[in-house]
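Write out the 3D structure for:
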Amino acid sequence: MREHGITTYFRIFVLAVLAGIAIGIGGIVYLSVDNKVVGALLFTVGLYTICIHGLNLFTGKVGNLVNQPAMYLVDLIVIWFGNLAGTGIAAYAVRQTRISGISQLAAAIGEVKLQDRVAGLFVLAVFADF
C-alpha cells in the first residue's frame, strides 16, 4: 500500500465535501415537498450523483473498513469531516433563501428521533429508516 500524501487527502476531502453538498441538496428537496414518497425518490438523485461521479460519502465507504489496512481509518475521518462541511455548506446556503423555514421541519424530525430509545434507533438504522 502506498502512503497518502497531502494532495491525496485534499482530493479525498474535496470529493467528500461535494458528496455532502449532494446529500444536503437531496435532504433539502426531501424536506421541501409535501409528498414524502416523491421526496424520497428525488433524494435518490443525490445518491445517484454521488455514485456516478465517484464522490466520497462516509456511509458508502465505511463498510469497506473491514477489508482495508488500518490507515483507511484516516481516509474515513477525512471523508466524515468533508461530508460534514458539505452538508453544512448546503444548509447555510438554503438558510439564506426564502425556503429557510424548512430548517424548523428538519429540527422537528431530529427532535422526534432524539426521543427514541437506542434499541429502536438501531432497528430503524438497520432497516434504513433512521
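Helices lie at 6-32, 36-53, 58-61, 72-95, 102-115, 118-126.
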